[in-house]
């Protein structure tokens, strides 16, 4: 079984953050401050805490600010950057970074959300299960805001339901993925391509699984959710 410390992590940090610009306009949203430090810091600390060492940050909008902030190291982490000059969407950005992804299994994280979860347990489950790809799923009280992920009793993902189709509690995509590196080669290069709308729906029934956790989750994509971030991390520490 592969060790989590051998995996390369990719963090998606290239978005414009359009919805957040009314409150954070002078920097990319992954650098929005929470309790005096950039939001991305919390993700890097989470990775370092489980022994991960190699991080690729996919940058685009205001890329220089992210590179100037973090440089090539953060604690034990070695950081490299993959820059897109035209928007390639979520999966397209990782496809662009393929030449510098060195491990057989890849951890991918959205740079504007955080889930309070044991990443080591997630990775161990992934390797023991023999997944080709996996989504970290959390239980949301109202899944209609995000879109619902449907699983069977064996943790196979069997369907995705789009946002607003039905209300009520359900499992949602937390934006932390594990996958075989070889799958990334199937993503078309040089054009926008989405995890949520194209890549993962194409894998239903082909080794795509969901890891369900009750961990707390926050994204900072809107002014309202960003305003909750300080309390979220305060509760995590105490």
Features:
eight-stranded mixed beta sheet; 238 residues; alpha/beta
- Strand segment tally: 14
Number of domains: 1
The radius of gyration is 17 Å
Work out the strand percent: 25-35%
How far is the first residue's CA from the last residue's CA? Answer: 35 Å
Strand-and-helix sequence, N→C?
Answer: EEEHEHEEHEEHEEEEHHEEHH
Q: What is the name of the CATH superfamily?
A: Spore Coat Polysaccharide Biosynthesis Protein SpsA, Chain A
Structural class: alpha/beta
Work out the oligomeric state of the chains in this entry. Answer: single chain
The biggest sheet amounts to: 8 strands, mixed
Structure write-up:
With 238 residues, this protein is α/β, with parallel strands linked by helices. It has one domain: Spore Coat Polysaccharide Biosynthesis Protein SpsA, Chain A (Alpha-Beta Complex), CATH 3.90.550. It has helices spanning 39-49, 63-70, 89-96, 119-129, 181-184, 195-203, 223-227, 229-237; strands spanning 8-13, 33-34, 37-38, 54-59, 73-74, 77-83, 105-110, 113-115, 133-140, 148-151, 157-161, 170-180, 208-213, 217-219. An eight-stranded mixed beta sheet has the order 5-6-4-1-7-12-9-13, sandwiched between helices. A two-stranded antiparallel sheet has the order 2-3. A two-stranded antiparallel sheet has the order 8-14. The radius of gyration is 17 Å and the shape is globular. It starts with 7 loop residues before the first strand and ends with a helix. The relative contact order is 0.19.
């Amino acid at each position: 079984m592969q060790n989590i410390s051998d995996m390369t992590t990719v963090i998606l940090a290239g978005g414009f953050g359009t919805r957040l610009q009314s409150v954070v306009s002078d920097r990319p949203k992954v650098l929005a401050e929470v309790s005096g430090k950039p939001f991305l810091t919390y993700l890097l600390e989470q990775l370092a805490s489980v022994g991960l060492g190699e991080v690729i940050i996919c940058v685009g909008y205001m890329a220089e600010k992210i590179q100037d902030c973090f440089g090539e190291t953060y604690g034990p982490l070695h950081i490299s950057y993959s820059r897109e000059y035209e928007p390639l969407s979520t999966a397209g950005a990782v496809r662009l970074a393929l030449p510098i992804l060195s491990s057989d299994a890849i951890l991918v994280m959205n740079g504007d959300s955080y889930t309070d979860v044991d990443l080591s347990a997630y990775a161990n489950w992934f390797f023991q299960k023999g997944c080709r790809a996996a989504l970290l799923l959390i239980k949301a009280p109202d899944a209609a805001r995000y879109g619902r992920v449907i699983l069977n009793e064996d943790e196979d993902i069997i369907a995705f339901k789009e946002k607003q189709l039905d209300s009520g509690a359900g499992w949602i995509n937390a934006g932390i993925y594990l996958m075989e590196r070889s799958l990334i080669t199937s993503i078309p290069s040089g054009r926008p391509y989405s995890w949520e709308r194209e890549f993962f729906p194409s894998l239903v029934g082909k080794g795509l699984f969901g890891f369900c956790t009750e961990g707390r989750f926050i994204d900072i994509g809107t002014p309202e959710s960003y305003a909750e971030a300080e309390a979220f991390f305060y509760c995590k520490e105490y």
